[in-house]
């Protein structure tokens, strides 16, 4: 395969790299709802499928921006002629956090701050005290 990836191939790689709890890729309906919750433009599940399968090409820039935001990649990801990079755990956490209520997201942020403080204190502790 050539190093150049189409928009559809890059989008499919992102969808495949972020899995639901059961290990299956998120459905187009789930992705559409996540974009809507994030304040993005309305993208129907059918339109997402058409983009991912290459039946639709050259989406408008606001759709590309919404997809980049959803998957936590720079917008240039879709335009660079290089191999797509896998989505990391941080992006998966962000996608899952979108499913939570505002109160649930605040609790997750509080937990992250607690873990960060604990790890920072552990790193700053002298070697002989560990």
UniProtKB/TrEMBL annotation:
PROSITE patterns named in the record: HTH_CROC1
Occurrences of domain HTH cro/C1-type (ranges): 43-78
CDD domains: HTH_XRE (cd00093)
Gene Ontology terms for molecular function: DNA binding
Annotated InterPro entries: Cro/C1-type_HTH (IPR001387), Lambda_DNA-bd_dom_sf (IPR010982)
Pfam families per record: HTH_3 (PF01381)
Name this protein carries in UniProt: HTH cro/C1-type domain-containing protein
């Amino acid at each position: 395969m050539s190093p150049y990836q189409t928009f559809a191939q890059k989008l499919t790689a992102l969808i495949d790299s972020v899995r639901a709890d059961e290990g299956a890729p998120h459905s187009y309906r789930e992705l559409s709802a996540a974009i809507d919750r994030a304040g993005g433009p309305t993208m129907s599940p059918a339109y997402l499928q058409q983009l991912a399968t290459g039946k639709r090409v050259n989406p408008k820039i606001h759709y590309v921006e919404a997809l980049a935001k959803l998957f936590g990649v720079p917008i240039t990801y879709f335009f660079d002629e290089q191999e797509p990079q896998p989505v990391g755990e941080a992006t998966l956490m962000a996608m899952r956090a979108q499913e939570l209520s505002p109160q649930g997201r605040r609790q997750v942020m509080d937990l992250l701050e607690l873990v960060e403080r604990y790890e920072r204190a552990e790193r700053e502790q002298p070697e002989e005290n560990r």
